[in-house]
Input
Amino acid sequence: MERFIDVFGLKKSKKLPDDELYVMLMLMRASEGSEPAKADCEDPMIKAACLLDSDKCPAECKDEEKTDDDTKVKSGDLAVSAEAAEGKRVLSTGISDMDTLTFKTSEEVEISKITLERYGYNSDGTDQIKWIWLEDQDGNIIAESKTLSKDKVTLNIKRDYKKVDGKYTAVIVIETEGASKGTIGFKVTDVDSTAKTLNVDNYSPYTYEIIEYTGAPVTVEVKGTEKSYNYEEGKSFELARLKIKANTVDGAGKDILVKGFTLTNDLKDEDEKALDMKEFLDDVTVTVDSKEIKAKATANKDDELVITFSEDVEIAMNKSALFVISATFKDFDAYGDAVKYKLAKEWDLNAVEKKNGTRVTVNYNNAKEWIKHVFAGGKIKLSNTKLWNIDAAQASEGTVIAEWNITITEPLSKISFILPVNGDLNGFDYIDSLTMVVNGDEFDGNRIKAAAYDAETKYAKWDYVKNAGNVYVMTEEGKGKIDSAKKLWNAVYEFKNVDIEKSGKIQFKVDITDTGNEEGNFQFDSFAKSALAGAKYDNTNKYVESNDVSGSIAFSKVNIQKAKASLKADDLKAVDFVLNKTDTLTVFKGKYTAKKGGYIDLNKFYVTKNGAQSVDEENAQPAKLKDNDVTFRLFLNGEEVADTDTLYSEETFSDFRVDADKSVDVEVKAEVEAYNDIAPKQAYKIWLYGTDSNGNEDTGEWKAITVDMSVKETAGISIDKATDDKNTITLRKSNAVLASFNITPSNGNDSAELDEIKLSVTKNDTPVLAAWLTLDIDGVESDVQWTDNYDGSITYSLGKDIDGKTLVTLSLNGGEAGEYVVNLTKVNTTVSREWSKKLVNAEVFITSAKASDSNNSSTVFEYKIGDKYDSSYSLKNLALFTTLAGVDMEDYADTIARYYAKDWSVSAELRGKAKVIKEWDIDTNKKTLEVTITANDKSAQLINAVAYQVCGVVDADKCETVVVAWYDKYDDYLDYNGSQLRVYAYKS
Output
């Protein structure tokens, strides 16, 4: 046994048998003239033996009960007080909050244990109290749950929460199961700590009434899928997602408030190591239904992540919310570690009923496993730069086919890998050389022609021959057909002993051979992160593992062109030409680029049809869309340089120089004289070429395809509703707008012909004739022909050209009060749009709605009287109607009618559905009405209809009833600040 001895202030390490140690100690004592008959426990030698747990330590100096706390110097004052949870009850079965304990210290004190004693009038044994524990104000469990023993429990404070410096609070929480009625409470009787003085108030314990009540039922469901992350500094990673639902069971349910939750990382049966969140956590983000909320998170040594919200998240009964928890990390290097967060215990969800603060009853729907998230790699980070497909001219040099950034923590050496080439069978013939450039240092690849690959041999250096479409390899045994299990590569490039000294840019470059007029393509296999596995870290002399690397490298596909240029198209939509019109529309836009190696003087242009060509089409003939005349016009940098109306006919123009590695804007417009017939979609190929810097003619040739072109009877149009497309309540007036929408030309057209609009209008389900309507186009009443059809619809024959976005408005002439519905069924072609407007003789609107007090015992509504069609009208008998949430409203209108008729012969079933919660006469001398309403049920209710009477419209003594109801689609009228109007339930 190795013994550490600190004698006379010097610490030594020496392996000594116990006997030798004892002899040494006694000799040293004898040399000092001491008497060994009676042990001096404070003697340094004796203390050393006892500290080393030697059996030579005198019995009188041993302290079997000594703990870490006992060895610490007692210092400072600790005072503990308790405050009752006002208005709270203890559930007979469930979780309940009790006293809040406050710990005050004069300096830093470590608290290790707290002893609680049970009080109250309850005859049950301690087995009705399943668990008792402590939580801090953020929901952290600071003392793990324990059971009572003889009416007492000593709770051990968790290591992360032992130190108290100043003031600290904690809540006593218990879980009961079948506790009988009576009272129960707990009192702090003792605290083990490093404080020199302890003051536990000599108070009478608070006791709480035990009631039979079940907390609101809540379901927690796991969402998401397993993920494997490649770590990136500053990036946020999802850790868990939970769907929390406030259920209703047998019609019972409550609105709940979610305060936070505790997630436990549980990887007991997993191969991965649990991520130490306490060490790496930087920040936590929580979203609820995709909206970020303010949250605070703490991680502890027990693999727990405790999250609390700055403001409680409310979930209405029978509704759910999706919580997504993500995090960023700092100084992260735990590659391969994982999290699999779960709510380990039902009290890990800190949620209460909104009305009374009672903890909810939680059901964990664990049909789906909790989701694992692994942080797979990241010491070496590969960040790819997307180059897309690359067009390489023959004989070009230094064409970049892959570019990426690498981030490393220390130098790498002895990187060796292979890159296979795929593509045309003779694709490797296009490559003269392949070079890897690392921060400016070049490494050449060694080309191995034609390799056949399988999993066992990795690759073999074989030549190949091609015969009648079959590929053969030349092996040592002779010629043989390649087995289907093997993969043929045109060539393999091998790199050996590449060094990367620091983070930076890495590129792969190719030189292209001059292969005459041949065209083809090739692409290298992806540079996977496994290619770096096996390399060495210079500083630590360790090998790189796959999990150390995040990202991979994708190589661009290289197209070999016999030209020394490229033509790349922009995104364009198909274009429509209109019959019996001449239009000029853009059918191609892009850039022509001369590659490195010299300029191109563009001077030739021609057009062919896209697709297979017949012998007749190959002869020069007019370019046409089904006998319509077509002329293609070529523009370079905005200047028209050529035109053609004949397919396959070469057009020449003055030299237009494009310097090496520079580009020119290319646009082709088609002028179509569409006077013969409609034509289906057709695309064309355009060709450009010229003379290169070496005087070679007909070089730099490149082709591109135009957009689809077609000839239609009318130009395409699109429609969308205007901004007033809500179903609204509007004051009756002589020119009330019933519907409005925008028409826009589509398919590349700047203008279109508005030929025909077909719609129907009803008032209280009765058709409205066209004579009572006005159709405006861009604010001007149209002189149009209209027809009232036998089916109740109206057809407007327009024949009007529109330029750009055009507003169409339908208004009512001298309209009467009532409910109007507009159905738009045709704008040139079939469409489907609907508007609902209710015109009233007088308006009443809500201007505010709020709870009357913090207990939501009632609601204060403020209503405003709006405009009247006639100032002589009077308003009275304003009534608000409500039903319980989720109740069908089919018979609601009948109830309202009977209410105003004072006919209460309505069936009991109907009376149960609709409830008049308040009525009052409207005081026309006031602009607003403020009324406090208390619901007539303990459950919160939604206002589903507002009704009032307007008197004097027809007869001074008679009144008509205006009803605005949720079921009639006027939900915006019954909303306030985006939520349906609610009457809070009175306090239970």
Observations:
- The radius of gyration is 42 Å.
- The chain has a mean pLDDT of 78.
